Amino acid sequence: MPSKDKHGRLRMEQLLVTPREAARALSIGRSTLYQLLANGSITAVKIGRARRIPAAVLREWINSQAHDVERQTEAGCRPVSAPQP
Q1: CA angle centred on 72, ends 41 and 35, rounded to 5°
Q2: Model pTM?
Q3: What pLDDT sits at residue 28?
């Protein structure tokens, strides 16, 4: 949904991001992002030679990761990111 900038002009949400922007948004390295693209965990679109990742795909991936952690916790498993004692 469009929002307004400080001058009152309509501003649209960015729909596609570069791999570098996606990695930064997810707080992961570019190599990790490219691994996620290669294994199909995150999908991208190609525009000419450029690869772009839909912002909606990033949100869906984050939600799926959160649900995976919830399921692991409910099953009595530790989340992958939890430190081992």
Answers
A1: 20
A2: 0.69
A3: 96
